[in-house]
Amino acid sequence: MNKFRSTLLFALFVYAVLSVALYETANALAIKRQTPNCGELKITSPKAGQTCKKGDEITVEVSCGSSGVTKIASLDIYSPKGAIKFAWSGSLPCTGGKASQKLKLDIPDGADVKYGTGSDATGFMIRAWGAVGDNGPHCTAMSDQFHIDDTKTSSKKKKNS
């Protein structure tokens, strides 16, 4: 009877150890699956140094690469001084590793769109907020700097009387 009890206790011990090991392995794999490679999330348009007019509608293109990002949740306009405007929010899928969204450069009046001149000029950036699943984790990416001409677009010109 003692030998049976010893064997039973040993079997329960082995079962417990294997159960914990299996749980830890499954948990580690789940965490690894959710850990994004945020460096792979990139904004490919607008391009560095590109000049747009205030009020223009531009296309923001995002490459999700192997980041794990499944959708873009927001696009924001930034200057070197900080956030200018939270411009778009929604749920834009990264289909085929890419996403694109039209965005109006509707810069609020009073926002300073000029930072230096010539080679000292700095620009604006678009920030994309990418989601990995519904509950995160999340990644952000900033575009290269582009410029905004503060004159209105040609479609906004006043008629001569």
TrEMBL record:
The keyword Signal applies. Residues 1-28 form the signal peptide. Keywords: Signal. This is 14394_t:CDS:1. The lineage of its organism: Eukaryota, Fungi, Fungi incertae sedis, Mucoromycota, Glomeromycotina.
